[in-house]
Specification:
Rossmann fold, single chain, alpha/beta, 14 strands, 536 residues
Amino acid sequence: MKVMTMPKRFITTGLCIPEKHYMVDISIQLMKMKRLVDAGDYFSINRGRQYGKTTNLHQLRRILSREYYVFLISFEGISDATFEVESLFCKCILEFIDRSIFYGEVPGISSDFLKSLFDYSNTEQKIDFVQLSTLLQKICHDLDKPVVFMIDEVDQASNHRNFISFLGVLRDMYLNRHTRPHFQSVILSGVYDIRNLQLKIRPTETHQVNSPWNIAVKMDIDMSLSKQGIRMMLEEYRQDYSLEFDTGMIASLIYEYTDGYPFLVSRLCELIHINMQERQEETRDCKQWSPYEFQVAVRMLLEEKNTLFESLIGKLYEFDDLSQLLHTILFTGEDFAYNQLNKTIDIATMFGFIKNRGGVIAISNRIFELVLYNYFLSNQELLRSVIYKQSLLEKSIFITKTGLDMKKILERFVIHFHDIYGRENDRFVEEEGRKYFLLFLKPIINGQGNYYIEARTRDQRRTDIIVDYQGLQYIIELKIWRWNEYYERGQEQLMDYLKSYHQSVGYMLSFNFNQQKEIGVTEVKIGEFTLIEAVV
């Protein structure tokens, strides 16, 4: 009888399994983690939500199981009552270990050993941390291979002192490892690092920096997915479905927008695949992956409600300083030195909002940047603004059969901005001008395109906006203009940038503080380039 084999698929709703799902090869980062285990290090994997932490742990267990007994447990779903009562918590740890053996997740351990462990975890007698420590040492002593202990979803332990006490047990085993049985390595995985959990647990007046987890080494392994890894995954997919498309180009686009954030990579691929399958069923035509299809997927991703985006936005409500920091970076172009000793920067890094780019804070990836722009621009006060309403009313005049009439968009923005905000002071224009131009663009391209800020060119004086609309791109440079030399230099920068994007027409919007300025839009030909220049 012939057995049907289901094709692999992209997945974003749980654990990725190489035999069932399309995955980027993460063997390099796994081997780096294994070296930490081999060295006997204890460490944490702290990354933002849906960053592939659980998948990494399960794949690491596969590799380590050749040389170690690996117990992988998860705190997900444990009740608060279990965490709050010492004996219940200790029994829970033993039951997790017992369950791992029973279901064959730790092969090679005898049934006799399982029975003795089962008796311990089901005894009517209360178990405290001293007894738990003894039992864990007995496990390490009696087994014939070193033992690795992994705990996933440690965030569930936040606000519970018993978890900190348990870390003390692990710390004691580590400090006495030269004379007593001990774990080869302990790995904790979650969004929060243990220092932040410690701060959440203790009352304000007794905050402590020191944590029992100060024995852990810093885990600086890059867990993002590489451009080459994404391309190889797409090659496998392309061959499975007998398609012909430029996997290198699509991989580059995915990486440019996601910076290798695992959930975002998988979700964009999943959305493109779903769209292609639906169109193929309708037209019987095998559609190929293209930049246009990629942009459709980006738009769908930004419009959907998912747990990752909900979590990110939820943190903005929870931490006012975090929201203010991100808003300032996005809309003023102000640079902030990256210093993780700063509490707000540390929190923004921990949740995955930002990264360190050459000593300066940068938003982690283009998708997050777009999510944040959409969030900040959805402020009800902004949506009630006159300039937004004007754009919404005039939307149809900016859309042509071939795309957008960007020159007309600039012309109308100059008129409305001057009429509405022309009497505002220079500080308002400098800090709010870019925000209101993005707000003006929003209803025009909504549903048909995306825009993003080119991070490489963003500073307090210059911002490049790239609009992707139905497969076409428009490059718009926003500048704070104070003198002619700076303006001429801006033209050169824009032309250089147009070359890199293979464009011959560019747009410049200058916020001019010269009292003798002449507002309006002009068209300038410089060699092979046409520059549409608007001044407000």
